[in-house]
Amino acid sequence: MPLGTDGTPQHGAAQELHVTTRMVHSYAMGQAWGAPDCAAIIDAGMRALWHWHRDADQGGYVWAVHGPQPQDSRKLAYGHVFVLLAASSAQEVGHEDAPRLFGDIAAVLERHFWDDAAGRLREEFARDWQPISRYRGMNANMHGVEAFLAAYEATGQDIWLDRAGRILDFFTGQMAGAHGQRIPEHYTESWQVDPDFRGDPVFRPPGTTPGHSLEFARLLLQHWDLTGRTDPTALPRARALTQTALSDAWLPEGGLAYTLTPGRMVDQAVRLWWPVAEGLGALAMLQKLDPTPQDAAWYARLHDFARAHFIDTRHGGWHPELGADGLPAANIFSGKPDIYHALQADLLALVPGVSRVFAGLRALAARGLDGQ
């Protein structure tokens, strides 16, 4: 369930699918790393996914629940790809229910969300699988890449790697190349850029989102690594995405702006935790592959800013949002976010490689560099 600012559970609040799934993924990483007491949380998350979020009558997974009761019955690509991520991560640590969950979500994605002609994901449906809109979005597809790479690592099935590559080609190749290494967020049903779209400020902010370019840069490098590093353009493209996002979004007072206008001006200057965490992840990958003084300087800048402003040294975790005064705020988010972004920022820097993170975490644990 959601947590308050001090880390205490917020009873009565709805549980959203992306939180349930990302906690399974995060604690599976912790278990692989040797951190104690992860198994019970993975178990609880897997039960919630199967018995609460899963629609046993019509298939798929509802967006929000309160206990076993649906609170928001929409079926969103964004949430469903995180179910695949959770199933893949649970499979990496040998959870007994992982194959069942993996098989179910793989079938749902194939039947309803994957558009093979486009090579991308359809966006959203009602509970009865009637389309809600003609909207198409980058965010769900980006996390689809993440989930597909995890599915490939967990199963060895090439279809997941191939589909991740098709999504990456469109967004980090075609779209970034046509827009100055910035990736538009919002599209029509025919995958034309929709520059006037203004949606949910959390999941569908207008304009472009530099933090997503940073995530895409990391995912591009992970895919490149898994495919044998055969594409000579992947590393330069990942670096261009990273450098453009950081230079566009870094604010004079420190921190990364949340969104830019299509004209590349700062739109929402609000400073959230996750773009900083994703910047650390992308830079950690670049420093492993092709280190430069500029990468090291940016990494130190983001790390120092996170320590000074986002990391809660009293209660643990990261504050999700800063106000104009640099202190924690609650204009978009309240309480503590799930640990997914912050934990990955830490662990991706520790593992020796850029892909197969679970293998890297197990290797660290075997060397005694674990989460104990």
UniProtKB/TrEMBL annotation:
Pfam families: GlcNAc_2-epim (PF07221). Transmembrane segments: none annotated. Keywords: Isomerase. It comes from the Bacteria. GO terms for biological process: carbohydrate metabolic process. The keyword NAD does not apply. The keyword Isomerase applies. GO terms for molecular function: isomerase activity. SUPFAM superfamilies: Six-hairpin glycosidases. Coiled coil: none annotated. InterPro entries: 6-hairpin_glycosidase_sf (IPR008928), 6hp_glycosidase-like_sf (IPR012341), AGE/CE (IPR010819). Belongs to the N-acylglucosamine 2-epimerase family. PANTHER family: N-ACYLGLUCOSAMINE-2-EPIMERASE. This is N-acyl-D-glucosamine 2-epimerase. The lineage of its organism: Bacteria, Pseudomonadati, Pseudomonadota, Alphaproteobacteria, Rhodobacterales.
